[in-house]
Amino acid sequence: MKFNTLISLLAVVSASLTMTAQTTQKFTATKANEYGLAYTLPKTMLDITVETQTTVKEPGRFYKYAKKYLNVDDPISQKSVSVEVKSVIVTTRGVADPSRQYIVNFKPGSTPFMMINEENLPVSVNTEKSLTVEKVVLPEAMPAKPTPLETNVARQVFNEEMLQSQSTAKCAELAAAQIYALRQSRTDFITGQAESMPPDGQALQIIMDNIDAQEAALVAMFVGTTKVSTDVSTITFDPSRDVTDKIIARVSANGLVAADDLSGAPLYLTLTTLQKGEMPVDEKGKEIPFPKNGFAYCIPGKAQVKITYDDKTMVDKRIDIAQSGIVYGLNPNSFTDKKEPIYLIFDPTTGAAAEIGSAL
What we know:
Layout: H1 6-13, E1 17-19, E2 25-28, E3 36-58, H2 66-70, E4 80-105, E5 113-116, E6 122-125, H3 160-164, H4 168-191, H5 201-223, E7 225-237, E8 243-252, E9 255-257, E10 265-275, E11 295-309, E12 312-330, E13 342-347, E14 352-358
């Protein structure tokens, strides 16, 4: 039955509390708590993880001379910022539903126990096992790497003549000459024709890396630079009702922004109920009533989740949802049967009975 003063009962139940893991607690039905176990079934929430990639392109100081000196036809000529959605991942998790709080009383003298997770949701009864769930690997945010012009070497590439030049055209000519001089130096070191060869391979590698960095910085002054970074954001959505093309966020030059920020393109969510939870029936098709003092669990419903962006389907998957399910129950005497007591493993995302077996 429902229990309206659950908080006060939990204070009594805590007397029989023992820790079995860092984030899981064990509650045992004892005389101190009148052989009762109190718990809350979950409602299902959607976590929508959106990975966006931001690309920033900036022209180099000498982009107008890229064709003349480096034979580059399409240097970056103006700054641009573009953001694209790389991936969208939908995962489900359970959160305690205040409307689904229960207490089950067992026979005096019996000692069934329940495991509760860090979300205050039931994990199992009469066993310390839990539901094995495949972990979803989520993308990670990646900052942009420094461009060739943002390195320490970039500050060393200007020789005295380039620094003294007041003409951009003349400075571009000197920079191009420096590029070709670096390329010639690289060739001389590779072929062993340099006037002063390094003593070993490690020293040679240091010199080659420095030449590469200087050349990259000088070339970037002509062709421009590109910086790419990745951001990850998570949107939480309560799938309590069906929605069609609901805007859950937008994607702008600033990355993922709020749904009401009209500067961005919309990210749409459609949630469609496929099946509602149904009460079990007997051989004649008649619903089996909820057992007296039944140990409540959820028979979840099913829904289809679809997320689109820029006319592309990013996610289209079927999920189980507690909100569209119904609550049923097991006979509490089954957990204390002297001959063959049972155990129950919950799905903490929906409150479903994921596994039932013999506790012996």
